[in-house]
Amino acid sequence: MNVEQLRIDTPGVEHLIHFNNAGAALMPEPVVQVITGHLQQEARLGGYEAAAQCAAELENVYAAIGRLINARPNEIAVVENATRAWDMAFYSLALKPGDAVLTSMTEYAGNYIPYLQLRQQRGIEIRIIPNDEHGQVCLAALATLLEDERVALVSLPMIATNGGPVQPVEQIGALARAAGVWFLLDACQGVGQVPIDVQKIGCHMLTATSRKYLRGPRGMGFLYVEQSLCQRLEPVFLDLHAASLLTAHSFKIRADARRFENWECNVAAKLGLGAAVEYALAQGIEAMWQRIQHLACYLRHRLTEVAALNPQDLGRVKSGIVTFSHRHNSAPGVQQWLAAQAKRINVSTSTAGSTLLDMQQRGLLEVSRASVHAYNTEAEIDALVDSLIRMSHA
Ligand SMILES: Cc1ncc(COP(=O)(O)O)c(C=O)c1O
């Protein structure tokens, strides 16, 4: 891994230390150039004309995402964000009264709210898969829950927004497939951080965002839907891109995953997402995952030197999202203190509202979240830890 080059490509690291990669990572320069270059073309040529000129590059966005997750380009829809990708998949499943959804303790509130909405509207059931002793999905419990034929869907995040375990998604996928149950994987915090192969995982649908570990622009995300399922799912929203009007009385929905998209989109950001995927692939996802794990492990180790901190990470396999709470300071207080350092340090606060089941079970209202990426360094981690030690003495 050429860390020096990664940092040259990331000019933001000169004036700040960014540990909010689980919020939105710093975009590398090649990605910024693609976005700004396209905006300039739009200003010079006109939006439609600029898009026509880069039709091949726009097609390549699907191919690049396909390479990233081992899917076919026609199984990918590019949409505004991970939530919209997830909504398009979830609401299209047409769950019926009595159908049960299995999810994890670590479920993201943005996904849990739609479960509750369909429970209210249609009478679906929500069942929570208990954790095992490591704090990850208990596979034995999942296998038992899957014996009930009312279970229609397994749906959970690969990595929770507040840290926690990297879920054993391949084993979960194998169990769901064996039971003939759909598996919708929220890989929002996983894509760009962990190698992802939808064939190995066996998920039927997967959702992701551009701005986090992929280091792409904000306001972009994507949805993967397995080819054989795609045509069986009717999107809840249709427009003249997702479908075509054949006569005054008939329309036809397109066959590929782009049936989940809509026509108007931020073309510059879409190209930026493609550039971010290409950039990540050029670094090597496996190499980045190794480095992220190494840095996160170093950070967790160094945080043990700060007496006032309680580590809050669970799981057999932990991700680059490192969480902790401070015995004497609130998480926003920690965030403000770090942001006020001579060289600003960005961390974030994850509140109970984002991952309510998990946080309530652990009696937590909030945690501080320092999420490392491959372009971070040990020296930056030392600066973070030194600032936290100074905070305890202030
Ligand atoms: C696990 C998880 N799922 C989904 C989302 C939603 O992503 P987006 O804001 O791109 O819709 C997030 C955002 O933090 C997340 O952490």
TrEMBL record:
Residue ranges occupied by any Aminotransferase class V domain in the UniProt entry: 18-384
InterPro entries named among the record's database cross-references: Aminotrans_V_dom, Aminotrans_V_PyrdxlP_BS, PyrdxlP-dep_Trfase, PyrdxlP-dep_Trfase_major, PyrdxlP-dep_Trfase_small
Family annotation (Gene3D superfamilies): Aspartate Aminotransferase, domain 1 (3.90.1150.10), Type I PLP-dependent aspartate aminotransferase-like (Major domain) (3.40.640.10)
Keywords for this protein: Aminotransferase, Pyridoxal phosphate, Transferase
CC cofactor: pyridoxal 5'-phosphate
GO molecular function: transaminase activity
Family under the similarity heading: Belongs to the class-V pyridoxal-phosphate-dependent aminotransferase family.
Record's protein name: Aminotransferase class V
Organism: Pseudomonas trivialis
